[in-house]
Amino acid sequence: MELDNASEQSRSQTPEATHSDSAMAPRPTPDRNERAAAIERRLQQQRNTNSGPVANPSYTAFDEHHELRQKFRRMVDPGILRPNPRAVALEAIDILLKLSDNILKNPNDDKYLRFKPTNAKIKQYLVDPQGTLEYAVEMGFRPEVENFQPYYVFNRKKLSELQVGQTVLKEILEQEQAKEEAAAIAKQREKAVAEAAVAKVKQAFLDDRKSKALNDRREKEVRSARAARGAVAPSSPPPSTSREMPGSGRALNGTASTPPPPAYTPPNRRRSQSSDEDMSD
């Protein structure tokens, strides 16, 4: 009986002891290798999701298409942009982009899967320039001959390369168009600055002419006013023609002195005086 009670007590205490021991025991940490394996599984799942033929090759900085993108970029710059005239290079990039777009939009239409190198536009922008036909070949086009007619035919197994090549073409074409827009804006600004400078010089010339005309008018008005004042001024008296009487001289203070004229005598008295003088004689 005592043994049975002891066993029952031990059984009743065992769950509590086990629970307390598990609570106090440290939690196991996941293994580093297991975490790495989980991350690798997720990455592989993403790769499988984006590996279909119609998947858009949007990419991170370094994915499975990184080296191929770098190769395509080098084929465009410097491969196409540097040796060819800029207008020809940009037109060639645009044609390559249209070829790839047509195939991706119509993958089952054979007429979009090939082009003739003898076509005038294709020859001008893809065959004759440097690096352009090589880019088409890298995207999946191969030379073939049908009924003595040469073609470049796309290999459907190269859809992934075509998508990456198309993405790089779009990227570079956008960059070059942005450069052209910036250059056009800078040219417009330079033109506006030059026109403003010309307008400023012209305005300064006009202002100088206006100032000179105003000064000339003022001087003319001054001369006219002086002439008018001279016309209304009184004339100076004519010079005197009188002669000095005998006996004139100068006073002690240095001024000229003139003797007073003789007193006035009436004519009758003068005759009587002269007759008296005659009688006295």
TrEMBL record:
Residues 1-21, 45-59 have a biased composition (Polar residues). Residues 225-234 have a biased composition (Low complexity). Residues 1-62, 205-281 are annotated as: Disordered. It comes from the Eukaryota. CDD domains: PUB. Residues 29-43, 205-224 have a biased composition (Basic and acidic residues). Residues 89-164 form the PUB domain. This is PUB domain-containing protein. It comes from Cerrena zonata.
